[in-house]
Amino acid sequence: MSHDGGLLAGKVLLVTGASSGIGAGTARVAARQGATLVLMARRARRLGELADELRGTGAEVACAEGDVTRSEDVRRAVRLAVDRYGRLDAAFNNAGVTREPAPLHETDDADFDTVLDVNLRGVWLCMKHEIRAMLASGTGGAIVNNSSIAGVRATSAGAPYAAAKHAVLGLTKSAAAQYAEHGIRVNALATGLTRSEMSEGIFARDPAAEERMRRRNPQGRVADPEEVGQVAVWLCSDQASFVTGATMAVDGGAGAW
Hints:
Blueprint: E1 12-16, H1 21-32, E2 36-41, H2 44-55, E3 61-65, H3 71-85, E4 90-93, H4 109-137, E5 141-146, H5 159-179, E6 184-191, H6 197-205, H7 209-215, H8 225-236, E7 247-250
Parallel strand pairs: 1-2, 1-4, 2-3, 4-5, 5-6, 6-7
Helix pairs in contact: 1-8, 3-4, 4-5
């Protein structure tokens, strides 16, 4: 399959949290748009299944099993891109977790630490190693961090999740300002409710939750992961060459209410 005209033709893209949900959806969109992919996730079997699927479409794919909270795992994924393909052009820092929401004063210490460790420290570690590789190549690059509508306002997801996702936007803006002169663009997505293992877990615990969330959304539906992936891929492409430090809402209009 030829991808010569794709938005990411000739570009090497790292996607974290790639084994399911928005990460897998973005990988599928990026493959159709000609990207060479390095996929990172903790679940090796799921990662391998996705890689085989994408290779079946003609995409070039490498896998890096790892945890974004471990600096060495992230460094190894970035090094895989550089060693195998010569550089890292773009990254979608998507890996994230949530926990059962609780009132702030009842939040478990371990739950707080886990949510902040993955959703905030993990993004920081990814950016740290990705930017180092992009600076070394001298050719610039594009980074997209997956935040959430919980990064711009309070939601039912709980205080630790909102705190982490708000902080991701701070990291994004700071890095955009610091590295613009090096040709590195850094943007974020404020994603709304998207079909994923995380959302299915919410619905399983609370069967009425999906209908409540649909009513709160102007479009009245849950996003497909590839709808989010299309925006992430565009931000990684040269078509977004003058976009940096931005927070792109991908929420079906939920933030308008």
